Amino acid sequence: MTAAYAVGVEPFWIRPVQYRVWHPSWPAELAGFTIVQLSDLHGRVQVFRMAPVQQWLAEADLIAITGDLYSPMRPRRRLAAELGRLPAARTRYVSGNHDYRRGVLHMGPWAPPPAVLLDNRVERYTSPAGRRLLLGGVADLGRGRPEWAQVPDGEPAVLLSHRPDAILAPGAAPYGLVLAGHTHGGQVALPWLGPILRHSRLARGETAGLVPWHDGRTLVVSRGLGTSELPVRLFSRPEVVQIVLSPAE
Question: Which CATH architecture describes the domain 2-245?
Fold first, then answer.
């Protein structure tokens, strides 16, 4: 029964997760800025049919896709069609390890405008509501060629990275919020022990969910939507994440 659940139920039981995040140096004008994070899709398209997620995507100030788009077991064109319906002006993507073939990034058949790809660059991003922040991205730390663009100090900044280990890099220091995926929450996690495989140098409790970092920054690690290697999940449900910038009282 456990095996049947881990193969046939939990991998498809997507949960919407919401976090409220704030950094003490950020201006109050950013309150309410909303980011929807899609990570590690691995060809899964069910999330785009969920009514709550459709509403989140329609209302988001930013749609952040943190790597690993496809799976060899699922047609690429189906996911590419869904990604093509996302508003390019509000969508940014950074590469994951599964997005490379022989060291070359391969996004096709999805072919978004060049501004959507955020690998190794920083932009002054303006939401449809006129809220502004610095938005940075880094190519996959393992398969890509990551380079850290210089970020002015003192400005509110958000970093997109496929791997959560990016927060350990000196280049990530200016970012008050880091969004990542890659770990899948282990895909299999045990009660009281957490994920069995972390695929990260971070501690066991830092490889999924909302992680307040020791220097005041915040790391959000999505458990992602798909699976890799083995098509199983246990105590690590797939998730779509909404982050709302909300000043603490």
Answer: 4-Layer Sandwich (3.60)
Full pLDDT tens readout for the chain, 249 residues: 999 999 999 999 999 999 999 988 899 999 999 999 999 999 999 999 999 999 999 999 999 999 999 999 899 999 999 999 999 999 999 999 999 999 999 999 999 999 999 999 999 999 999 999 999 999 999 999 999 998 988 899 999 999 999 999 999 999 999 999 999 999 999 888 888 888 899 998 899 999 999 889 999 999 999 998 889 999 999 999 999 998 865
**SS3 breakdown of the chain: % helix, strand, coil, rounded to 5?**
25, 30, 50
Which alpha helices (DSSP H) does 174-248 contain, by range? none
- Paired tokens of 19: 């976090």
The answer to whether the predicted template modeling score (pTM) of the entire model surpasses 0.70 is yes
